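User: My collaborator and I are trying to settle a disagreement about how two of our proteins should look. Neither of us wants to argue from intuition anymore, so we agreed to look at predicted structures for both before our next call. Could you fold the first one, then the second, and keep them clearly separated?

Assistant: That sounds like a sensible way to settle it. I'll keep them separate. The first protein:
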Amino acid sequence: MLSRSRKFRTNKQILIGLLMVGTFVVVALIAPWLAPQPDPTDTSPFKITGQQFQRLPGPPTAESPLGTTPQIRNMPLYGLKPGQDSSYQWDVYYTLIWGTRSALYFGLLVTFLTSMIGITIGTVSGYLGGTAEYLMMRVTDAFLAFPAIAAIWLFQRVFFENLFDPFMDYDQLSWWELTLERARIDPVMLTLIVFSWMPYARLMNNMVSQIKKNEYVQAAKVMGASGWHIILQHLLPNSISPTVVLAARDVGVMVILACAFIFIGFGGRVAWGIMLVTSRDFVIGYGGNPFVYWWSFVPISLALILFSMGWNFLGDGLNDALNPHRRY
């Protein structure tokens, strides 16, 4: 049986996952050098390259190596600005590079918040047991049964209606709208945070419910250790591994889900998803040939696939390395 540290060093899936994820991290860090910003004060992951008489993707050129796609009409948050019309084009290469930042930000933030919520609820409910555990797990089941599509629509109407105005006036926004805008939280992100913590809660509840029966936990109770001491010193360290694996896989999953929601018409800030919306009318292409305007969707789609695969490789590798019953 190999030691845990050697399992990490020799696991090919972990190495491949780290290489793929690390590549996206490096691209995000050196984005200003890979795709220089025309205006350093503009933080948008989209660059306007010019105008085209027809609303068709522009082919790759020296200025735009991966071509351009038509700017979205009335796209919330990243739509037309005053003085523009719908003939402006977005640079695909620029969005591919700068979109890496928005994908990492979205995936890591959503996964971190959902895992923290789920781990807290699952750990506390598993430790308390009895009626408290029953009620908390039934609430978890209720969240599992609620459709995410309905939640996005509800959050849009309640919290984001004014933020969806492409010409919004910040002086007219309420305090919660300003808070959401400054935190770069959109309805898709809020929905995934509120409705994605349940697997973590159920996993931690099962783990903690089993571990708390061990003799060393019972001995700590007899010696007068507080509940928080037992949770932090004994329960969490011995039950957290499966949630780490789940979180590693979820980073890519959250970005894929966000892009899917954006693609079907819900607002969001993941630049790759927004760019895919611009290409949905050109995927089939003239005469049924999907490669007529390949540059409008292939680079972004490949980036999404590789991004998700990297995190999946990392999660699967961690599962193998952290599994005490795994033999090499």
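The second protein, kept apart from the first:
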Amino acid sequence: MKFKARLSNEEIKGRLILIVGLAISIAFVGTVFVLLYGLLFVVQPLEQAPNDAEAWKILSPLTLTMSGVLAGLLASNGLKGNQNDKDKRDD
């Protein structure tokens, strides 16, 4: 039986960041599409129901938070990756 080489800490971290980023991206895109579908294709009454108003109050900060998390995740990993590459080139 031949064993695969173990992953390094950087490879594990990279895969974890990819999985988290994909999960948040899918949730964000799904939320946006559901909101757009509800606005465009579902017949809305002239007066907004109280339940719908509360749902919008919850979903608005949720989508803003998810977009902020994605931006922070991409920005922080881009900076760390460039710094590590720079250190490797200097050696």
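Some points you might bring to the call about the second protein. The chain is about 80% helix and 0% strand. The mean pLDDT is 78.
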